[in-house]
From TrEMBL:
It comes from Ilex paraguariensis. The lineage of its organism: Eukaryota, Viridiplantae, Streptophyta, Embryophyta, Tracheophyta. This is Pentatricopeptide repeat-containing protein. Gene3D superfamilies: Tetratricopeptide repeat domain. Pfam families: PPR, PPR_2. PPR repeats lie at residues 55-89.
Length: 117
C-alpha cells in the first residue's frame, strides 16, 4: 500500500501538481499501516521543507505513524507541540501509548483529555 501511495505522490510531483494536506495525510497513513518509518520520516521532512500546513489532520497522522512505527517519543513530541487537539488526536496518542505498553501514560493522556474538554 505504501508503495502505491508513494508512487502516486511521485506521479503528482512529476505532473507539477503540488501535494496538499489531504495528500500528505494519505501517504502518512499508508506509512503507518505498513510500518514504513523511513518513507514516513521523508514525508515529514518534505512537509517541513515545502511549508505545507501542518494542520490538525496532518499532525494527528504523524502522531499515529510515529507511534505505530515504534517512535513513541517522536509521536509524543509532535502531540505536545499541537496547539489544538481533537478527540482523534488524543485517541491516536493514547493508542500509541497502549501499543508500547505505556498504560500509565495512556491513562494520564485520557485524564488530560477529559480536563481539556
Amino acid at each position: 500500500m505504501v508503495n502505491e501511495a508513494f508512487g502516486l505522490f511521485r506521479e503528482m510531483q512529476k505532473a507539477g501538481v503540488d501535494p496538499d494536506e489531504v495528500t500528505m495525510v494519505s501517504v502518512i497513513s499508508a506509512c503507518a499501516m505498513s510500518g514504513a518509518l523511513d518513507v514516513g520520516r521523508w514525508v515529514h521532512a518534505y512537509i517541513e521543507k515545502k511549508f505545507i500546513e501542518n494542520d490538525l489532520e496532518v499532525s494527528t497522522a504523524l502522531v499515529n505513524m510515529y507511534a505505530k512505527c515504534g517512535r513513541i517519543e517522536k509521536a509524543r513530541e509532535i502531540f505536545e507541540a499541537m496547539t489544538v487537539k481533537d478527540t482523534k488526536a488524543w485517541s491516536s496518542m493514547m493508542v500509541g501509548f497502549a501499543i508500547h505498553g505505556l498504560v500509565d501514560d495512556a491513562l494520564m493522556a485520557f485524564a488530560r483529555m477529559e480536563e481539556a474538554q
